[in-house]
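Field log, afternoon session.

UNIT: design team B
ACTIVITY: writing a sequence onto a fixed backbone
BACKBONE:
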């Protein structure tokens, strides 16, 4: 992918603050961190998002993420972290090369990521059925 920023980073054509690399995955600091130590875990092979990615690649990413997240939490003195993926423009994806966000969290740091609501009567069951039907037809 000639124009992909993350492919360019992986090829060494753009700089990054790399913290981890193996033969399948790299991890580097996000240049606009939600919190200090915000780290991106990126597969070396280009895929646009989680849905078009080979499950083997996802498995490699998660293995690397566990290692990197341990180090990020320890190095930042965090007491937890959020693991996030923005999949699709509607979800806020800006770079269309799959990546996982590791965001270190401190107790009481005030970051509120998931505002929630209540389901109306029957809505939850209807949606669960619709999703299960899609899964059965695969
Ligand atoms: P998103 O596609 O919304 O999941 O997020 C893309 C993330 O990549 C943003 O948090 C950006 O701050 C980050 N980002 C963009 N360009 C770079 C870069 N050259 N090096 C490190 N992080 C980057
Ligand atoms: Zn790419």
């Amino acid at each position: 992918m000639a124009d992909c920023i993350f492919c360019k980073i992986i090829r060494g054509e753009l700089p990054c603050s790399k913290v981890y690399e193996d033969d399948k995955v790299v991890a580097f600091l996000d240049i606009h961190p939600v919190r200090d130590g915000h780290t991106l875990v990126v597969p070396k092979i280009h895929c646009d998002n989680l849905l078009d990615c080979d499950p083997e690649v996802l498995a490699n990413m998660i293995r690397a993420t566990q290692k990197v997240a341990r180090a990020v939490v320890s190095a930042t003195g965090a007491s937890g972290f959020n693991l996030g993926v923005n999949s699709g423009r509607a979800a806020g994806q800006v770079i269309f090369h799959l990546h996982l966000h590791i965001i270190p969290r401190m107790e009481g740091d005030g970051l509120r990521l998931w505002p929630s609501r209540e389901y109306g009567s029957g809505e939850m069951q209807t949606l669960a059925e619709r999703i299960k039907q899609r899964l059965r037809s695969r």
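LOG NOTE: The chain has a mean pLDDT of 97.
NEXT ACTIVITY: expression trials, pending approval
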